[in-house]
Each structure stands twice: as structure tokens, then as C-alpha cells.
Automatic annotation (TrEMBL):
Domain AAA+ ATPase, residue spans: 46-224
Single GO term (MF): ATP binding
SMART domains associated with the record: AAA
The name this protein goes by in its record: MoxR family ATPase
PANTHER family assigned to the protein according to its UniProt record, in alphabetical order: MAGNESIUM-CHELATASE SUBUNIT CHLD, MOXR FAMILY PROTEIN
Amino acid sequence: MTRSAPEGGAVAHRPTSIDETIALLSAQDYVCGRPLGTVAFLALTLGKPLFLEGEAGVGKTEIAKALAAALGRRLIRLQCYEGLDAASAIYEWNFAAQMIAIRTAEAAGNADREMLRAELFSGDYLIRRPLLEAMEPHPEGPPVLLIDEVDRTDEPFEAFLLEALSDFQVTIPELGTIRAEEPPIVILTSNRTREVHDALKRRCLYHWVDFPSFDREMEILRARVPGITETLSAEVIAFVQSLRTEDLFKTPGVAESIDWARCLLALDTVALSPEVISDTLGAVLKYQDDIARIAGSEATRILNEARAKVGRAS
Ligand SMILES: Nc1ncnc2c1ncn2[C@@H]1O[C@H](COP(=O)(O)OP(=O)(O)OP(=O)(O)O)[C@@H](O)[C@H]1O
Ligand SMILES: [Mg+2]
């Protein structure tokens, strides 16, 4: 069977090497170092879920999007939150539509209860939630299932996930068991607001996504903020990287570097200055206590430190 090539530079097959994995992600503007490229390649090759933990804004969610786009697969996202239960993750019956169908049947004098029952509990009245969607067949191949921020759920849901990820099947009493012919590509992320249970981690390949090095963050800005000069990029990154060593309530991630760079570009900024920094600090720091601590003389000190670093690097 031949498959037509998916759109947007995506490849239909799974990458056959670490380098190819990194190149595929890079074609989606996702900059990926060798350690992350290696686990991503292994997760795809062994069909194991990939568990990514790390600070906020370091590219955990984005890699799932980039992989789906690179492979031409659908991205199915299960956003976790406290109180998320199996019903909201797998399926629900559309009670409102079922009620309308019952009323309509009653009004029409259609009294065949068995037929009505069979119809009401058919696929037409099923609301598919992410886990069920991920297990159903997709013409372009198994989707990427992103189970995002799993640390926000509670332990019973984790136990349920463990089971779902072991057999990739779900049972709907009225319809039977649905089993994924080919398991989805699963990526779990966590911000480590609490430790996720060992049993769940054991099913996965684990990787801690760290803040990028100076050179890698430069590469990310090149990919994500077209039009920015190398000089301004270097200043922004050196400044943000210095900020990350400060004792802040919320350390800025890559997302903040990108946002800040875009703001500076929109303001036609050529180089950082204490004034520009104080005017735009809200793109990098999101807590008033952090802004109050850094604005003013601290910002000037960090800027000088950043300039010295850029000077040494160039
Ligand atoms: N390695 C990277 N290459 C390209 N862009 C990146 C990379 N890492 C982060 N980004 C950019 O940073 C933004 C934030 O990344 P993402 O949403 O994946 O962070 P996260 O780790 O999931 O954060 P959170 O824990 O807050 O959800 C993305 O939109 C993307 O533009
Ligand atoms: Mg995320």
C-alpha cells in the first residue's frame, strides 16, 4: 500500500535515527538537543510513552505539537486538571440528545423500547473524549496523544491512566471494548507540582526538560522570532539567563524570552537599556514582587552582567 505524502513537510513514517528525529522537529521550528532527541526517537521506535518533566515554558507541550505536525498525525490533547475523571477523559453519553430522541419517539407513538434503547446507546449519541479518540483508527496513522500537566490530576485518575496506557483499550458497557489497533504516540508532561507515581513513570521513558543553553536559546529565537538581530537576541537571552539565577517567585522560561523578543521587535528596539527593560519587564516577569525586585538598579546590574557575557561569547 502506498501512502500519499502528508502536507507541510511531514513524513508518514517514523524517523529511523536520532538525527532524523532532531531534523524533523527542527523543520517544525522546534529546537531539540541530543538528549531530548534521543528519548523522542526511542519513544517512537519502542512505542513507549514519553514522560517530560520540567519548569514552565521550556517546550514540553510544544514538542508534542511539533511531533504531530512533523509526522502528519493528529494531535489529541487531554488537558489535566484537579478533579478530572475517567468519564471526561474517555467518553460521555449525550444525555440532552438522548432525551430529545426519547421525547420525539414518544410523541410519534414509537413504542419499540428495545429498538429505541439500541439507538440511544449507539455511536451517534456518544461524545468522544480524548482517550477514546486516540484509540480509534485514524487514516493518517496513530495520533499523538498529549496528556498535558498530569501532575494536576489526583491519584485515582493516575491509576486509571496507568491501566489505559498499559492495554490501550477502553470498555464502554453498552458498546463493548475498543482497542487501539496501533497504539497512539503518547507524551505526558508534568510541571512537578507534585511527584507523579513511580508506577506510571515506569511505563514511560523519562526526560527532564531543562532551560536551554545560551546557544540553544539563540537558535530558538532565530526559529521563532524572525527579523530579530543577533545582537538584540544575544542581549535578551543573556539577560533572561541571568534572571534565571536570581531568587524569583517565577523564573522566566523560553516562552518569556520569545515574548520579550517579540515585544522589543514591535517597539523597534535596537539594544537593551535600563529604560526599555523597565518598560517591558512585564513580558518576562509575571509577578509584581519579582518586577519590583528586578526593576531599577538591579536591572542595570543584570544588564551589565549580560553585556559582559555577550562580549565574552562574541
Ligand atoms: N525547544 C524549543 N524550540 C522552539 N520553541 C520552543 C522550544 N521550547 C519552548 N519553545 C517555545 O516556548 C513556548 C512555550 O513552550 P511550551 O508551551 O511547550 O512550554 P511548557 O514546557 O509546556 O510550559 P508549561 O509547563 O507552562 O505548560 C512555545 O510556544 C514555543 O514557542
Ligand atoms: Mg505545557
